[in-house]
Amino acid sequence: RMFHVSEMWCYHWKWKLHHCLCLFTTYIICMQQAAHGCYDCRIVLTDPSGVFTSPCFPSDYPNSQACKWIIRAPHGFIIQLTFIDFDIEEAPGCIYDSLTLDNGESPMNLCGITAKGLSYNSTGNEMIVSFKSDFSIQKKGFNASYIRIAVSLRNQKVIIPQVPDVDAVSVAETVLMPELSQFTLCFEATKGSSDDNDDWKVFSYTDALSTELFSFGKSTKGHFLFVSGTQCILENALPRNAEFFTGTFQQLCVIGDSFSGSIGIYAKSTYHIVYCPGIFGKVIPGNGRLVLGSNSNEVSSLNGDIYNFRLWNFTMNAQTLANLSCDVKGNIVDWENEFWSIPTSALKAENNLSCGSYLIPSSAIEPTSCANLGSLCQATVNATTPTPPTVTTNMPDTNRNDKPNNGGLFYRISITVFSSSSNSVSKVHDVVAEWLNRTFQNWNYTVYVVNISIHPGSIKEGAREKRSIKSFGVLALLVYNSTNNINLEEEDIRQKLISNNGTMEGGYKLHTVDVDPVEKCLAEENPPNYFWPDTRPTVTNFTLCHGSSVQTASRTCYLGLQNYTSYWGQPDLRNCTENAADIANQLLNLTGEGQQLTSDKVNDVVQKLKKIVNDEEIDESLGSTVVTIFSNILTSSDSVLAASSSEALKTIDALALKIQFTGPSMSISTRNLALGVSSINSTSFKGGSFSVSPQNNASDFQIDFDKDQANAFASVVLPPSLLKNLSQDEFEVISRAQFTFFNKNGLFQ
C-alpha cells in the first residue's frame, strides 16, 4: 500500500493465497416435439397483445399434441391471460388431456371447462402455457387472448390534469418533503402542438394554506422558476418566444442553490447558469404538497404529458447531469409508483419512453389452423352450449388495495341428487351441468358455474317403489362477476337452486343444497417483516420490500380447483434483492464532487461498500465504481474519515482480493486512489514490479506493471527470490499480488 505524506511515499503490498476448485457439470437437454409435424404450436409470443388457440380450434384438437407458448414482456410488465373459450377432456387430476399454466410461481393444470371466461396473471414478465393431448377423445380446445400490463411507472407517462384538484396528480402523502436550500429537479414533458397558450405551469408546490412555495412554468415574460416568493425569469437559458417543449418528450433539469443565488438549467446537453439574487438564503419549507400542473384556476397547466419526474435535495454539476442515467433515483421524489398518487385516467403506458423497459422485437405468430395441420384436423361439429358471461379476476393493484370490484367472487356449491335410473356418472354430469347452466341463465346476477364433479353415493330401496334409488354428490364452483358491486348472498344462490328443482330432466330430484363462499387467504406474516392482509382468491397483493421505499414484493391468493379452497402462493421477493451496481451508482452520486460528507454519512457509505464487497461478485466495472467512491471519500477531512478509516482500509483490501479480471493484470486509477492486481504463477515466478506515475493532461494516475517509469511517483520491485521461504502449501496456492496507492493519508491515522 503506498501513500503520499508531504514528500515521503509509503507503500504496502500483499499476496493473495487463493484456492481454486473447478466443478464440471454435464447437462442433458431433452427437447420434445409435437407429434405429426405440429411444430407451429411451439412459439414465443412477444407482441404487446395477441390471441392464440389450440390446434384446429374451433374444431377438435388432434391426438398426441405437445404445444408450448412462451409469452414474454419487458421488465416492468406482467402478462394477463384470458381464456375466451375452453373445453379440454376432463379427468381427475387432468391426467389425459390438459393445459398447464406456469405463471412464474406455481404451475396449475386445467381441463374440462374450468377456465372458460377466467383470467390469470403472471407474477413476473413471462408466462408459459403448455398443452398436451393423448391418443383418444378430443374436444374443441381453447381460444386465449393475452395482454401485457404495465406495473411500473417507468413504463407509463402521466397526462397533466387541466382542472386543479380534479383527478389531481400529486406526490403521495407518505412521502416526506424536507426543507430545500439546494435541489436538482429533472423531468421530461411534451406540449400539445395546437396549444398556443404561453401562461402555464408544469408543477406547483404549496403549503397547508395553498400558498405557493415552488413552481416552474412559463408566462409572457418567459420561462420562470418560482422559489419562496421570488420569480426568476430564465432568460437566455430557455427561449422566450419559442416553445422548448414540443410534441415529443424533452428532458429538462433545473438546479437551485440558495447559497449562491444561482439557478442552473441543463437542457439539450447544454448547461446554463442564471443568477437570481432574490433566492439567496431562501429555503423552500418542508411538509408541503406537490402537484403536477397548476394548483389554481388563475394559471393553466401545461397541456401535455410528463414523465420521469425526479427531485434531489442537493445540486448536480454539468458532468453529473450529462451522465445521469435512469438508474439514479431521486432521493426525495422518484418516478416510481410508491412516490405518487395518480388516478388511473391520467396514466398511459407507452413503449418508447426513455427509461422504460426495452421492448422485445415482435415475432410472427403462426396460426394453429387446419391449413397447417392437414388431415389431423377432424371434420366434426360439436354441439354448442350457451356462451357464459366472461369473468375476469382481479389484476394486481399498484395501490395495494384489495378491492372487490373488477374481480370474481367464488362460491362452493354442494348438492345431492337422487335418481331411480341406472345412469352412469357421465350421464349424471351432463344432466346436472345442463340444469345448473339453465338455472342461472338470465338471472339478475352475472354468474357462471365451472368445474362440476360427480361423486356416487349410497343406494337404498324406495319405500313405495320396488326399485333402488341412487344418490350422487355434486360439487361445483360458482363465479360471480361483481363488477357492478351488487352483493350476492349465499342464501340467494341456495333459493335459486331450490326453486328450480322441478326443472331437472331425467327424473333427478334435488335432495340437499349447501352454498358457501370460498374463504379469503387469511392475513399472515411470511417471511418475517412481510405482512399480507386478508386477500380474495386469484388476487395478487403487493407490499414494500423490507427496508425499501421503492421495491415491491408480491403474493397471490390462489384458488384450488380440486376442493375449491383458497391458499397462499409463495411470496415473490425477487424485486427485494437490491442490485449491487445500482447501489454503487447511488453511492457514487452521493459522494460526488461538491458533496459535503459528515462522519456519519461516510460511515454509512463505507458500511454499504463493505456489504457489496463481501456479498457480491466483483467484476472490473463494479470494482471501478467502488474504487471511485473511495476516492471521493478521501477528499473529506481527517476528522470526518477517522471513525471509518479502519473499515475502509479492510474493505479496499478485500476488494483487491475478490475482484475478477482477465489477463495478467488489471488496474483502476482515480484522482485519490489507484489499485493494481497482478496474477502470479508461483512455479514460474521471475519477479515483477509496480509503479505509479502522472498521466499527461489528466488528474488520475497511470499504473504500470513490469515497466520502469523514469518519472514514477513510487514503485515496488518484487525480486525472483521472493517466494523461496514459503512453505510448500503456501507456494502452491499463490495466485496474485495486489498494490494500492493513496494520494491522501486520511485513512492512515
Automatic annotation (TrEMBL):
Record bears the keyword Mitochondrion: no
Residue span(s) of domain Pentraxin (PTX): 154-355
Membrane topology: Multi-pass membrane protein
Keywords: Cell membrane, Disulfide bond, G-protein coupled receptor, Glycoprotein, Membrane, Receptor, Repeat, Signal, Transducer
Keyword Signal among UniProt keywords: yes
Signal sequence annotation: 1-37
Residues in coiled coil: none
Pfam annotation, one family: SEA_Gpr126
Primary location group: membrane
Compartments where located: Cell membrane
SMART domains documented for this protein: CUB, PTX
Disulfide bonds: C94-C111
Ranges of residues in domain CUB: 41-149
Protein name as it appears in the record: AGRG6 protein
